[in-house]
Amino acid sequence: MPASAKKTLRVAVLADSDTRWKWGSLTANRIAPENSDIRLDGYLLRGRATPTARQLEEVGVQADALHEVTAVQFLHAMREETYDILVLALVGGGVQAMLHGLGRIWADAGVRSEDPAGRAKRPVVVTGYVGVVYEKLADGLLLRHGADLVLANSRQDAERFRAVYEGVGADAGSVTEVALPFLGGAAYAGEPDPSAEQGGRPYTVVFAAQPSVPDNRRDRTYLLNRLVEHARRHPEREVLLKLRSKPGEHTTHIEELPYQKLVQRLDPPANFRLVYGHMGEVLDRTDLLVTVSSTAALESLHRRVPTVVLTDLGVREALGNHHFVGSGCLASWDQLDAGHRPVPDEEWVSRQGVAAGGTAAGEASYDTAFDAARARITKLLDRPGSLPPPAPYYTTVTAPGYLPALLARHHLGPDGTPLPGTPAADKEPGPVRQIVRRAARGAYRHGVQRVAPVIRRMGEL
Q1: How far is CA 72 from CA 89, 145, 198, in A?
Q2: Structure pTM?
């Protein structure tokens, strides 16, 4: 079909943090049916982790329009706008609230003339996870139930998701196997040639930090000290600490003890540096990726970069590194300093939706990982008439002691309608209120990163 004959689909992505915007916007491009272009409208849910301009630019996805909204403002926009696909890139509670709120406004929307069946049109609703699912499996999944597609990033996740839904008697037909949308890049070419004095590069070790793992000063300081010690042991290497956010920025998880602050107390060697930016660009020059449990490990494995998941702090659910049991990647800093290099288990890697072998065939299998989602969305879009309203598992009948409070956090009543006293959805805050809001957000971040740790230490005296 010639490019001029392509159909343009209107796609909206609602995200509540930089990592979820990354997942949602890239997913929107991956799952769009073939022979179609998309117009991408981004909606950023106002809150503590609303992405900054730098964080949005780092993702590298340009939206045709971008709005910062409250939950009620977003629902108002969905009443006025017509989209083909809606991606909810939110925490589970946010997804559930939007499903109930959207169900309410679509039920009240009335007849649209473009629907020959005489029913209100609505978009195909898609949701999922930004990375490894290692905690709150049942809770998070049931909060996402009700979307047309609940994306699972691997074969293993798809099996687990269906088992949870079927186990509570919920429809599991929405579970759709895909892969993480941000995998890709050139396969690892091997260690650099140490004899290449001109145009060469040093052997590079990268530690992929996480905002909330580990969550205490002692363990974070330990990891930082070991990384700095590794740099001192190997002055010929470049040792990089890859950070997700700069001071003052927040990401998906709260970071009370940023590594930037901890490293100020040390005297690292010249071959140790802090780096930011796109993970894919950092992996272009990485010879060894080290982490506790970051999704960066899957990006690294996809490109066949030697990858280590640390066991120094134990293999524990609280750290998330238990997800990598069976991967062949578990090792300690002592083992790394002694020259050990883990070899990934190919079957485990394959079950994680990661291209096996780092070959052209592996990349081809990754490219087809989104075919099932595209086919399902195409079928739903081509369905005559309107789609039925969302039918989440949680209702005031199945969860009367849980759902109302969850919806109230987003200023919605038990039936999904805005609560009395909610500010007008279509009213933009004035300049004074915008200044106050920015100041409040800054105060919150200051409290999390500076005041809270002090109070916690005082409580331990």
Answers
A1: 16, 21, 58
A2: 0.85
